TrEMBL record:
Gene3D superfamilies: 1.10.1740.10, Winged helix-like DNA-binding domain superfamily/Winged helix DNA-binding domain (1.10.10.10)
Organism this protein belongs to: Microvirga lupini
Family matches, as InterPro entries: RNA_pol_sigma-70-like (IPR039425), RNA_pol_sigma-70_dom (IPR014284), RNA_pol_sigma70_r2 (IPR007627), RNA_pol_sigma70_r4_t2 (IPR013249), RNA_pol_sigma_r2 (IPR013325), RNA_pol_sigma_r3/r4-like (IPR013324), WH-like_DNA-bd_sf (IPR036388)
Pfam families cross-referenced by the UniProt entry: Sigma70_r2 (PF04542), Sigma70_r4_2 (PF08281)
First and last residue of the signal peptide: none
Protein name: RNA polymerase sigma-70 factor (ECF subfamily)
Molecular-function GO terms, alphabetical: DNA binding; sigma factor activity
Keywords: Sigma factor, Transcription, Transcription regulation
Domain RNA polymerase sigma factor 70 region 4 type: 132-183
One GO-annotated biological process of the protein: DNA-templated transcription initiation
Family per record: Belongs to the sigma-70 factor family. ECF subfamily.
Length: 188
């Protein structure tokens, strides 16, 4: 927290410079930005989202975007801190919009939307025992494996998955993204 306060022993972080370093792939610069701004960003996200898990997700997603898009920051067009918080605000608003959609499908089964198709585990069991896809899917947590199979075999949307599994939309998106990365790495 000393970095954010700029005490006499620790100078304030130059966000413009740190973002430039991030754009060049410097992970230490991203860590410095995180250490400097994440606590304050979490507070802002909490005020917007009112749930700690969602606020943490918004901050996490913000830093993923900062890492990916740091080269698009132009100090001539604005302040680095404003750029960071604009990303956070947009991510929080997207989560709020998604949460509203999730509420529409929260009672998935009572709406009569459950199909008679076989469940995700039955589909996985049908995969060849020697297949690398089955081996890689078995490495995923059961709920994440279920989310992947429901999405890619049964074609459920993120909102439908959130309703069926009873978790926030942002969590489903995060599970799908991380699970696909894990499967890609495992299959390689």
């Amino acid at each position: 927290m000393a970095l954010a306060l700029g005490t006499a022993s620790t100078p304030a972080l130059d966000l413009n410079h740190a973002l430039g370093q991030c754009a060049r792939g410097d992970r230490a610069a991203l860590r410095a930005i995180y250490d400097s701004e994440a606590p304050r960003m979490l507070g802002v996200a909490m005020r917007l989202l009112r749930r700690r898990a969602l606020a943490e997700e918004a901050v996490h997603d913000t830093f993923l975007q900062v890492w990916r898009k740091a080269e698009s920051f132009d100090p001539a067009r604005g302040d680095a801190r404003s750029w960071l918080y604009a990303i956070l605000r947009n991510r929080a608003l997207n989560i709020l919009r998604g949460e509203t959609r999730t509420d529409l499908v929260e009672d998935f089964e009572p709406m009569g939307l459950v199909s008679d198709e076989e469940n995700a585990e039955a589909v996985m069991l049908r995969l060849s025992d020697t297949g690398s896809l089955k081996r890689c899917l078995e490495r995923l947590e059961p709920t994440r494996r279920q989310a992947i199979t429901l999405a890619y075999i049964h074609g459920l949307s993120h909102g439908e998955l959130a309703g069926r599994l009873g978790v926030p939309l942002g969590t489903i998106k995060s599970w799908i993204r991380r699970s696909l990365l894990a499967l890609r790495e495992c299959m390689a």
